Amino acid sequence: MHRRTFLQASAGAAALGFAASVVPEFARAAGGLVALVHTQAAGDNGPVDQMIAKLKQLSEEKGFEYRAIYAQDPATYETIYRTLGDAGAAIIVSTFNEVAEPFKALAPSYPDTKWIQLFGDAFEPAIPNVVTVSYDYYLGCYLSGVFAAKMSTTGKIGFIGGISIPPLNADFNALKAGVHSINPDATVTAAFAGSFQDPAKGQEIATQMYNDGIDYIQTDAAATDGGIIAAANEKEGRMVSCLAPGQYALGPKSVISIVGLDFGVSLYNEVTKAIGPEWKGGVHEHTGLGTGVIDFIASPVFAEQGPADLVAKAKDALAEVDKVRAGILDGSIKVAFNTTL
What we know:
By secondary structure, this protein is of the alpha/beta class. It is built from 12 helices and 12 strands. Strand 8, helix 9 and strand 9 (239-242) form a beta-alpha-beta unit. The N and C termini lie far apart (42 Å).
């Protein structure tokens, strides 16, 4: 199924269209039907595109049928999940905090379906056929802060998130702590676009930050990142650290790094476990550094095309990042998960 054929209509049309598209033979296919219901649009060069690509790869490797459905309107969530459950879906994977309540409402009614929520909090009480997965992304943001403090010439660093929610607040605080571990006198400023899908707002905020003297911005805003990168591209010397490798090419001379959270790898890992015989539901999984899902990564494109002075400076900065990463992994460096702004 091509990603451009997802449901993108109104609540009623979306639910009816999807119900018509899921036929019983999918549920009886080898391995069963595996469905990804994503609540942000594809084409983001980031989380959603990563998940769709990895689901397709895994379906080819394991021989199961899959569907990727864009649940654009929250009013459709329960209808889509119920339709999948009624069709006998073996596994339903869905994304982000907003799907927690529909999961809680419906998963117990479909005990033979395995439910996986990527980027979610633990359920209290746990539901036996549900796995929730959270990400210690803030640890990567701490490393970005260390790098930013070494790279910045103005001592002014910015953070632009999609929406102010506890995990993103923790990401900002970790970035700030990382900066101050190197340069206690630096200033670190946070702003939120109010959406994970508003590049225009991202560009507006980033332009103002750069004009105010900030020279390094860490993003945390999914598709909104496109506008932040566009602002960085307007003047050489502006640096931005983003979310996914697909963004390197959008700013060859500005996207200096990413705090990578590879939702595709995470989906691949969780679905692989779910189609195996030893899968256990009713658990919450923390995913952090050292898992192949989260890390701070320098852009190889920037290393080739970025301003020569910044490329040279980055080598020393990355050596410091490597030392701090090792400290986090061995427990000698503790990073607080602080959600208070």
